[in-house]
Amino acid sequence: xxxxxxxxxxxxxxxxxxxxxxxxxxxxxxxxxxxxxxxxxxxxxxxxxxxxxxxxxxxxxxxxxxxxxxxxxxxxxxxxxxxxxxxxxxxxxxxxxxxxxxxxxxxxxxxxxxxxxxxxxxxxxxxxxxxxxxxxxxxxxxxxxxxxxxxxxxxxxxxxxxxxxxxxxxxxxxxxxxxxxxxxxxxxxxxxxxxxxxxxxxxxxxx
Length: 207
Known about the structure:
This protein has helices at 36-51, 58-72, 108-116, 168-183; strands at 78-85, 88-96, 102-104, 120-122, 140-148, 151-160. The protein is of the alpha+beta class. The protein has a single domain, classed as GAF domain (Beta-Lactamase). The chain has a 6-stranded antiparallel sheet with strand order 3-2-1-6-5-4, sandwiched between helices. α1 runs antiparallel to α2 and α1 packs parallel to α4 (168-183). The protein is globular. It starts with 35 loop residues before the first helix and ends in a 24-residue tail after the last helix. Mean pLDDT is 83; it is low at 1-27 and 197-207.
């Protein structure tokens, strides 16, 4: 094998792979309940460590991250990244149906999360003013900002075909995983938003 080709990392097989299918007894409107949820997210953290053991590349790591969430968590129909590009968010690595390729700052759930630099949880996307519909099956959504050293890179977008799929616990767990992801990833300088508390348009944001 040529020296520049890196094989897929060897990840220890685990029993958790979409462990809670839709309709299972452990399911709740928000996906699944503690302690089952905590166990699944801890397992994801361990598997993420294994996937990143010999890899720091930005695109490689966020691609595997999206696939890891999509294939491991229940009641999801889309998981992916929108990355900051000038004043806009441009589609990055994802799992699911083809999606909107460009979102202006402040527009839709993703644009709002980027503008506010804060998590946005939408229990019913049809009740969210200005929601951008990329998959007609989506009913609820969670978007989390992605940071490297305090500077915005983009957002993680997670969609579900179920109403009220996401709650504060999901947000906290996934943000921990995002921090773990960024701690082990080298991000090109040009992908980082300007420092100093400005949003994608250079406007000061109150947190």
